[in-house]
Every structure is written in C-alpha cells, then in structure tokens.
Amino acid sequence: MTTAQTTFADRHIGPSPDDHARMLARIGYADVDALIADAVPAAIRTGRPLELPAALSESAALERLRELAARNRVLTSMIGLGYHGTITPGVILRNVLENPGWYTAYTPYQPEISQGRLEALLNFQTVVSDLTGLPVANASMLDEGTAAAEAMALAHRLSKSKEPGAFLVDADVLPQTIEVVRTRAVPLGIEVVVADLSAGLPDDGALFGVLLQYPGTSGVVRDLAPVVAQAKERGAQVVVAADLLALTLLRPPGELGADIAVGSSQRFGVPYGFGGPHAGYMAVREGIQRQLPGRLVGVSVDAGGRQAYRLALQTREQHIRREKATSNICTAQVLLAVMAGMYAVYHGPEGLRVIAERVHGHARALAAGLRAGGVEIVHETFFDTVLARVPGRAAEVVAAAVERGINLRPVDADHVGVSCDETTTAEHVGLVLEAFGAASAAAEPPAGDQLAPLCRDSLYLTHPVFHAHRSETAMLRYLRRLQDKDLALDRTMIPLGSCTMKLNATTEMEPITWPEFAQIHPFAPLDQARGYLELIAELEDRLAEITGYAKVSVQPNAGSQGELAGLLAIRGYHASRGQEHRDVCLIPSSAHGTNAASAVMAGMRVVVVKCDAGGNIDLDDLHAKLGQHGEKLAAIMVTYPSTHGVFEETITDVCRVVHEAGGQVYVDGANLNALVGLARPGEFGSDVSHLNLHKTFCIPHGGGGPGVGPVGVREHLAPFLPSHPLRAEAGPQDTGVGPISAAPWGSAGILPISWAYIAMMGPDGLREATEGAILAANYVARRLAPHYPILYTGRSGLVAHECIADLRKITKDTGITAEDVAKRLIDYGFHAPTLSFPVAGTLMIEPTESEDLAELDRFCEAMIEIRREIERVADGSYDRADNPLKNAPHTAEQLVGDDWKHSYGREEAAYPLPSLRESKYWSPVRRIDQAYGDRNLVCSCPPPEAFED
Question: pTM for this one?
Fold first, then answer.
C-alpha cells in the first residue's frame, strides 16, 4: 500500500513518498533535505520561503478561474487590426487543441517518431505557399509582428550594398507591426521610415526593403504591382504582410512580384486568446530559402526508400550557428499551425472561398447600408474592413455599438473601422448600422464586385489532402492516424535534457478554451478584460516572488523573445547612464544557442568564455576576458544550473566580478525548474532572466510551440521592460524598449495554465517539485553510471536536474553512436534524450519530477539493455554494421517482410524487453536520410506519385 494522494502536488509529482525513500536509498541519502544540502550550493540558497498563497485544490482553482473569467465580457469584436473572429471546427478543437496526443508532443528533432505532426506542418506550409504564391514557406513564426521584423532582417541580409539605406514601411501597415519592426531595428542599426505609399514610393533615398499590408489596416485593397515594380527597380526586397483568407479571392503576393510574404494564420480556426498564441507565417521566393528563419519541414526518404518527413536545413538554426545565426527563434507555434493547417484541410479550397465570399459580402452589405444612411465610406475597394468617416462622432458610434454588444475600432475622432469575419451575421451588420444611425437606410450591396480587377484566377490547395476529409468522420480518422504515428507525453516519458517535458495537467489546460478567455480580442476595451488583467497581474507578481525580481513582463511569447527583451533592457539601462559604448556580451561556451543569437540581435558583440573540464565557467578565462573587454562590457549570459546539468559553485563570484566591471548579469531561466523554492536568481546576483513557462510552469510544448518567455528584472531595469503603443498598461511607456510581440500581453490565452499550476502547487508543492526533479535526475544518473559514464557532476558527485551520458568512448570502441542509441530507444517505445547537446556524442537526460518510479525504471532498464546490445557488438556477437542499433528503428512492415536478411532475429529487433509485448509503439518509418532531404528540398505536400519509385 502507498500513501494516499490528497493534493494536486501529490498528483503532479510522480513518485510516492515510499518511492522517494527507495530512490534516496539508491543514491545514498536518508532524506531529501540531505540530498539538497549536498547538491545545491549554500551560497545561492534563499533565506526565506516562498510567500505565495496556500495551495488550492483542483476544484477550488477552477472555481477561482471561473471568477476571473466572469470578469471578462465577451462581445462580438469587429475591431480587426490583424485579429478576427473565427469558428474552430469541433473536430479540431477536441482532437487537436484539447488532445494531449497533440499538445504534449515535443519539437520533432527525432523525426521518425514525429511523422504525424511533421505531416500536419507540411500541410500548413502548403497552405501558406499556395495562398501567398511563393514556393517556400516555413513551419510557422511567433506572430505577424515578429514575422515582419524577421523579414526586415532577411531583406537587410540580402542587400549587396555597403550602405543599403532604409527599410520603408507603408503607413497602412498594422500599427503593432510597425512598432515591433521599430523595436527590432534599433539595435541592428537599421533605419525605419514610415510613409504613405498609396501613390507610390518617395523619389529619393536608398532602400533595401519595403513592407506593405494587403489588405491595408484601413481595409483598402490596392493593386500592389506598381509599387512592387518601383521597389524592384531600386533594388529593394518587397515584403507583403497578407491576410490568408483574403488571398483566397485576391491575387497573391508572389504573382504581384513580392519576395517575402508574412502574416498570421489566426483566422484559420484559432481563437483570439487576448492576443495569442497564434501561428505567424513567412514565405519566400526561390533562391533565398536557405536564409529563411524558423523551422522548415521537408520531405526525405527513410532507409527503405519510403517517403518520410523531417526538419530541413537545420544548419540554419540558432542552436548550431549561435552568434552567426540569422534569427534567435528556437521554437515555433506548432500546435496553432497544426490547427490552422487542419482548418484548411477540413474546409478545402472551396470551403475557404465560401467563407471569404461570405465575409466580403457582409462587408459590402455594411458599406451599402452606411452609404444609404448618409455615412461616407473612405475606400471603394475593400475585402472585410470598412472605414467610415463620421466627423466628430467616432466615440459616440463606438459607444453605441458597445451598447449593442459589438466592439468597433475607433481610428480617430472622425473615423471608425468595422471588420467583418467568419462569425459575422446579418444581425451583426444590422446592429452596426443602428450604432451609426443608419439602420433605416439599410441597402443591398450594388451589383458586381469592386474587387473584380484584383481577383485571383490561379488555383490553390490542389493537393488531395485538401479534398479528402470533408466529413467529420474522415477528418476524425485522419487526425487519429497522424496522432498514432507520434510519441507524445500521453504514451511515454520524454527525457529531454534542457527542455523539460513534464505533466501538463488537465485542470491546467481546461480553462484555455472557455469563451471568456478564448474569445477576447487583444484590443478590446480593457473594461471587458478585467479578469485577464487580474490574472496577468497575479501571475507576474507570483513569478517575481519565485525569482526574487522586482518586476516581470509576460509579453515575450517565446523564450528567445524573453532573452531579447532582457538584453534590450540591459542595453536601455546602459544608454540611460550614458554608456552606450558597452556592447560586449560574455557567453560561456556551454550556453544555449539562442543566447548568442539574441545578443547579436540586441546589438551586442559576443565574446565566448571557456568552460573547464568539469563543465564550469573557467574563472581564469573569465577574468582574462573582463580584463580585455571590461570597459565595453554590457553583460554576461549564464544558464543556471548550467547547460551541463550542474550547480556551479562559483556563480556568486561570477556575478560579483561582472558587476565590479560595470556589467549586468543575465541568468538564462531555462533551468529554473531546478531552483524554484530553493534559490532566487534575483537574490544571488542576477539582474535579469527570462522564464520558460513552457518548461518550468507547465505550458505544453505542443509539438514545438507555443511557448511563453516572460522576462523578470531587478528594480533598476524595470523602466526598460517591453511596452506597447496601443496599450499604455502593458509596460513603461516613456522608457520601455517598445513591443517585443504584436499583442500587448503576448500569448495571454495560455497564461491560465501557469497561473493554475502555481495556484494548485502552492509554495510547498513548488519546492517539492524542484526537490523531486533533482532527486529523479540523480536517481537516473546513479542507475546509469555503471553502464554509461556521466560526463559532469558537481559537489559530492551529484547532478542538478539533468545528467549527460557520455558515449564518446563507446563510439570509439564499438562504432555505436549516441544517435544509434537514440534511434534504438524508439524500438523500446521511448523518445530519445537530447542528442549531442551541449556536447557532441552524448545524451542529455532530464526525467522531471512528474515521472513515477515505474517509468523511471522502465527508461533505465531500456538504456541498460541497450548497453548490453552494445556489448554484443563489442564482443563480436553482433556485426558492427548490421545490428539492432545501426538499423533502428524497425518498422512492422520491415519485420513482416519476406526479405529479412539481418544477422539478428526479428524478435530481437521488435521485442528487446518482454514488457514490450504488452504495449508496443511501432515507428511508422525507418531511419531517415537527413542529407537526402537537404539535397532534394521539397517543403510542401508532394503529389502522391512523387515517390512511387
């Protein structure tokens, strides 16, 4: 019998107290306190417990969230500004967004066990490519604003001139996009010029890029071909921020001559969520795909020649290129991209066009009614947004609409914008006409369509996948078929070091689809979002208490964006003191690749600090670098505990000497799950950190996103946190660095997850989770140490929250690589640990606190059995080239085929442990040829006959 589980913390933390006792005995400790005393340096231990509210039960937490949700008012929002009402098909809502088989999956770095989500992402890329008319689209961006900023940086890199000139932005671009572009341009030294381009480009000035909105923020639809041609003549790259739904009717950017298209897929079935998460997109012309930021899904083949999917051109990514990376993005918005892609699969091209025509029809009916009522319509040509001129009456009209349950956009005192969307009805149109005082004059839209000269005549979404799943039954089975190809947390532990995959509790997930949270427009009047504002304030305060910082901003919508926000705060702080010359960022050689890339994007120069043989920062080298760069030192970025999985004893010394040199200390919060309740970065010397809510605080990875990366700072950096031009409440307006994301509070729609986790765990549960993670990591390390050397340990031979199994000598002796072990683990039903990071030829293992002892032992037994298989290679029992490890993973098709010619048996391949006979995951493909996919890049849905041979 085991102790009864009575609290949420008992449910979240996998091992029982009895299991903990057994685990402690295995590593030689009588209790957890003794283990923590030996593992965590006394110098960083906090002197006070967490001052947080007592833990709530799951039902009490939901009741409190219901109270907060009730303080939000769900009106029909016709505000536009890049966010639109949409209907999520129930089959997608229930079977993707609310399905742990999709939302607990990890980034598809092991493609053999990610074929389902990779196919779904390929669908998304095809949707974007087809609708934009550009040949290559990536697997999603963080949002439209940051996608536009990335496009600006891409255009700048493509410029051949030593003095490339300015980035020209049309004044009719979304206002939040303009400001995100400005924020990102400043540290890169790029000049941004905003001008009215309705009559063409200005005559003078060098340009490297032009950004246009299509349709414009005001709703106008213009023929962009003339201004695109002008830009081309002047050697500029053209970026078009386009509405995907409008592109079902309008000529696509690629046909207009655009080089790059960016935007959001939000209106393809993804709720508002008060601003996110939503999948942005980017598509590019032929010839520049190797400079495309973000992830790119490509088509390759497996060892048997079968079609298979993988992440293509990965050498572009920040974790490899580091300070030479062209972007710091290390994640995407996969879960939302899957939803948007499936929305297109479900509706197909005909269905999307019907939706677009209905939206456009409502806009035309509205414009006709307003005209008939004597209201001036500013633009004759529009898709979904009508701009009305009402001299001096804008506030009155907007207020009248709110009384009728509808939000409109007050542009200025004389203009009101009205945007129609998929949820708009004839009744809504009538209520809007009433608000304008034009109800009695309602009229049918005129015959013909003013869009006709700009209408699209090219086909899109011709691939069979967009025509084969019209019934809900067919769609349900398609989603299930893809889900069954993957390994997610609902099947097995995902022991990825550095990227914790722990329980995403159902109670935490439940509120995000409540209409009171899901259906709030990010620019709705704030008196309609009081519950959100209270939840956000509580979450920011609790994160500040946990980390020891003075202030937290939740605006950054990924860890990489939190890094950038923190570095920009440091940059702003130095500038405020007249020390703009401080531009050197010291980064240990073990750091995450995003660190170096973010520093470069923040306008800093990266100087690498060596690590010693124990994986710690080399203090002698640090002092040497401080002596060399002290006068120009801006900051040091340190991951703590280190990326090597140890608590470095010298962290307080590192903080002290950097401060003495005039620099700031950035502690990367990626591994905060090893500190919560035990130590606070803001107390032991750090000035700023980003926090991965998608790691420590239980927001699920969703197959590679969404994420949230709040930034926490000490008091002196608080004036330099992110701000937002459309929401003064979102950050310090006078001194803030500007918006980091398009929405004022970033991906607010998933913040209830982390709020619920903290509320239900309470101060004691949060500390116990940290202790449990450290205990689990040391238990795994101790069990595996006789079989695989553990590369780095701290004091008393202990690790922090993760451990690194070193296979380099095994590889030298037997030819079996870390990758072979990773692929063989698939046959055992496991997702591999982190492969060859931060040290090539190793596996970094992080078990987390939420895996129970039986699962930890099952993983350890698999690793130990694989070690026995390696021994059979070493002693000659297995052929060095033809063995279960080199040929892993094995598919069912391969095992039942008539051409089995291997030197080992089928049973050895399929069932290396008896327990696998009860429950077996079968990889859908054999080992994938990585190089083939890069040499033969295909990144949209290939025709069925493409791989017949």
Answer: 0.97
